[in-house]
Amino acid sequence: MTQQELLLYTEEEITQELAEVAIKRRKRLKMSQAAFAEKAGLSMSTYRKFEQSGKISLESYLKVLRHLGLLKTVVELLDAESIENIGAEAYLAANSKNMV
């Protein structure tokens, strides 16, 4: 999925795409849904629902990412946000005299 395509997707389509990535990765690890859910510390019903619908809490999704070896993507997102915030802080510090 390209960034341009992503802009055209609904949130539901994006969450389903995330579930598809998880399914493919879990299968590459040769794990059943039950075995993966147990390893990730999720109930089987929670994990099954995620694979079927893409619906899952953020906390549970982070568990999925961790056990699929994909948590690095979230860390990279947080690092990018920190870098952007550093730029924003520098801007605010440099322009604070002009702000009321």
Average of pLDDT: 84
Q: In angstroms, what is the radius of gyration?
A: 18 Å
Class based on secondary structure composition and strand pairing: mainly alpha
One letter per element, helices H and strands E, the order comes to: HHHHHH
**Portion in beta strands:** under 5%
CATH architecture of the largest domain: Orthogonal Bundle
As for the number of domains, it is: 2
Number of strands: 0
Q: What form results from the Cα inertia axes?
A: globular
Major sheet:
none
**Which stretches are poorly predicted, pLDDT < 50 over at least 5 residues?**
none
**CATH-assigned homologous superfamily of the largest domain:** lambda repressor-like DNA-binding domains
- Total number of helices: 6
Query: Distance N terminus to C terminus?
Result: 44 Å
Question: Quaternary status of these chains?
Answer: single chain
Which percent range fits the helix content?
Answer: over 70%
Description:
- The protein starts with a helix and ends in a 5-residue tail after the last helix.
- Helix content is 77%, strand content 0%.
- The radius of gyration is 18 Å and the shape is globular.
- The protein has 2 domains: 1-69, Orthogonal Bundle (434 Repressor (Amino-terminal Domain)), CATH 1.10.260; 70-100.
- It is mainly alpha-helical and 100 residues long.
- It has 6 helices and no strands.
Identify the notable features of this structure and list them briefly.
globular; 2 domains; 434 Repressor (Amino-terminal Domain); single chain; about 100 residues; about 0% strand; mainly alpha; 6 helices
